Each structure stands twice: as C-alpha cells, then as structure tokens.
Amino acid sequence: MDISLCRLRVICAFGLACVVSACTSVMEDGPRQRAATVDRMYVIECGENHAKDLSLWTTAAADKDKAYVFSNNCYLIRHRTGWMLWDSGNSDRIATMPKGLANPRGTLIAYMRKPLAESLKEIGVAPEAIEHFAMSHSHGDHSGNARLFAKSTIYIQTAEYDAIYGPEPQKLGIPPANFENLRDAKIVKLNGEHDVFGDGSVVIKPTPGHTPGHQSLFVRLPKTGPVLLSGDFVHLKSNWEARRVPSFNYSIEQSVRSMNEMDAFIKATAAQLWINHDSEQSRAIPKAPAFVE
Fold it and tell me: What's the CA gap between 129 and 133, in Å, rounded?
C-alpha cells in the first residue's frame, strides 16, 4: 500500500477519534454544568415583628432603645415535581388582633396583616397540596402556621425535633401548641444536609446556633441564580458583616461557626444571601402573588 495513503488513513482515524472524544466530553460535562433549578418561588409576607430595642439583636450600644420593624417572610417553591413551603410565619390568628401580639418577654409585638392561608389561596395553592414543608426553626414567628401542613412531608433536624417535643420547649422560646397536631405527621428527621428533590435545586443546610437544630435553605432559581434563605442564623445585614450574634441565641459558638460556614458556602456557590428579617433587603424582593424566577 502507498505510504502516503496509509498516513492519510491514520490522520483521518486520529481526527475522527478526537471528534468523538470531544463530543463525548461535551455530553458528559454538559449535564454537570447545567445545574437543576426550581421553576419559581413566591416570597409571601408572613407578618412583621416590631422591636422596641434593636440592641438586643445587634449587641450594638448605638442601637439601644432603637425601634425596628423586622420583616418576616414565607417561601413557596414550585419544583417540577411539586410544591414546597419554607417557614410558616406568624400565626394567622394574629391577623384578627389590630394591636398585634406581644411575645412573652415583651421585646417584640407580632403583626399579621394577611393570613398565610389567604395568601396561598391567591396563588391558587391549598395547604393540602404542599407536599414538602420545612421550617428554619421552631420559634413562633416561623412556626405560627405549622399546623396547616400536617399532611406534608416535614423536614426537621433531629436536635430541633428533640427540643420541640422535649420536657421544656418554652425555655428555648418554642411554643409547643404550634406542633401538637404534627406528632403523627410524616416527619423526616435530619442530621445535617438534605437534598429535598434529589437534583441539587433545593438543599437544606444545617446552621445550628440560634436554636439547637436551626437550618437554612439553598435554592437554585432559573434567572435570579442561587439564593440562600437565612432563617435566623443571621438577622440583619449589619450583623452578617460584623459577625454579630444575639446574646439570647441557644449557642453563641455554634452561631458564629454557622455564619462562617455559610460565608464559605456562599463564596463557593456565588449564592445571594436573603436575610429573612432584614426589612431593607426584603422590600427590594417582589412579593406574592408575584414570583421570582
């Protein structure tokens, strides 16, 4: 056989192999680069908490006796396989109290302008249609309507579950009445991170410190990109920047560790941190019945 013809065949074979290899590489790498996202997320106003002395949360002397209105949101997530609700806000019964409801320590007055059940109805979703439910933690401004979701699969850290159903939940600021009808619910006890839908689009992150089993939620949105819903692992942007922790947290040490771990996680994922109680930031986020993508 002619030597030049042999060389041509070798070159062609080599070129074809490279093309096949390149195509295979694209096929293998493509799905990994296109991370799954949820369809959309509704940010629902689930009350306001009026504080008389902001320094209790910031530990800053300049905030002594300074009034502040904390925002308080619930987050309804539409995944292609179903609905998930994160946090349930102040109790709907507070909507019938024009003067609000003071907490036992008298440091906050909670208001609820519109019941969560009504907000869900405006979106066209009944509580029974929400397959997945989780709360950042069990304090009353996050668990106020938990009883509405007894038919959902509920995700909770084991440490938080033990605190709720332990001998003295009130000492941790937990209102046990919010959880009475959830004892027989389908509860998934967690001991760390959990991928809710199994595709990386919604991931529960353990962030203990504010309460024994506090958790936060990582959500990938198709247009906005990844966001981290804080719960109360941080209350305000100023606290985040200064790494300040309220003295009433369950564990100061765990709280600081959670903040540092989430800082590293945010940098690794390029996520936006949405701080639930920061009113200034919350005002810039579209509220239900509008949604974010």
Answer: 11
- The predicted pLDDT at position 31 comes to 39
Encode pLDDT of 38-92 as tens digits: 999 999 999 999 999 999 999 999 999 999 999 999 999 999 999 999 999 999 9
Give the per-residue pLDDT at 14.
38
**Three-state SS letters, 22-82:** HHHHHHHHHHHHCCCCCCEEEEEEEEEEEECCCHHHHCCHHHCCCCEEEEEEEEEEEECCE
Is the model's pTM score more than 0.85? yes
pLDDT tens-digit series, residues 194-222: 999 999 999 999 999 999 999 999 999 99
The residues, ordered by sequence, that sit 6+ positions from 203 with a Cβ below 8 Å of its Cβ are 193, 194, 195, 196, 217, 218
Q: Are 62 and 85 in contact (CB under 8 A)?
A: no
- Superfamily for the 37-283 domain: Ribonuclease Z/Hydroxyacylglutathione hydrolase-like (3.60.15.10)
Helix (H), strand (E) at residue 187: strand 186-190
Instruction: Count CB-CB contacts under 10 A for residue 50.
Output: 15
CB atoms < 10 A from the CB of 94, how many? 21
Tokens 């024009």 belong to residue? 98
241-250 per-position pLDDT tens digit: 999 999 999 9
User: Nearest Cα to 233, choosing from 253, 212, 213, 258?
Assistant: 258
Q: Nearest 5°: phi and psi at 274?
A: -100, 110
The pair of three-digit structure tokens given for residue 47, joined into one six-digit string? 């009350």
